[in-house]
Specification:
This protein is of the alpha+beta class and 224 residues long. It has 4 helices and 16 strands. It has one domain: q2cbj1_9rhob like domain (Jelly Rolls, Sandwich). The protein has a 7-stranded antiparallel β-sheet, covered by helices on one side. A 3-stranded antiparallel β-sheet has the order 11-10-13, with no helix packed on it. The longest helix is centred in the first third of the chain and has 15 residues.
Amino acid sequence: MITIKNNFLDKDEIQELENTSMVYSKVYWIGRHAEPENAFHGLVHRIFEHEYIGSWEPHAGGPVVSGMNPAGHSSIKGATAWWNIRPIDPKPHSDLISYCTSNGVDYTPDPPPDRTFLYYLKAPTTGGRLNIYTKPPLENMNWNESETDSIAAIPNRLVSLPIDYVHAVQPYLGNRVSIGVIFWKTLPTIYGETNPTINASYDRPWEKKENQESNIKLTEEYIG
């Protein structure tokens, strides 16, 4: 199921997120029990609360905003998150394949994550809708002829979709900025240890040259 939540953050949170200085080419690991270091980390914890806890949890100093309720999906150790600033020639892809495949080898953990979250910070001038291919195209048909949900990139909108759904961004003009988030019980071993008490950063596996062709091929096989 695809879900949409509009007006997700308040004005102050949005401004803090816009002013966050980070390396956009990295994938960030945000440990569930690690202290948030910036508004980007805070967004991830807010999404966790929204999806898995569903309410603010009070404590002596005020509300807990870091999603550390041990009763709320305690098996989730943290999340990976990344900036989508200006994808070059975006192609239909599955985040599960993109994240868990390297050199043609599948590193998908057991159990795998179940959803991808996309938070929209800025909208383009034109275009830039998210195409979600809810049913693969028939044999010898291209993606434009498949069954597709198309979602507008509206600022302060949170979209959630099953992680294995193939999706792509439509061509656009202007400044389109979104943040992707995936929650993990176990991180694929190509990144390292699954540590819920740290924040870290990694190279993006889907941007490595040795992974691009194999991941496209795996996506095509998946849709076939």
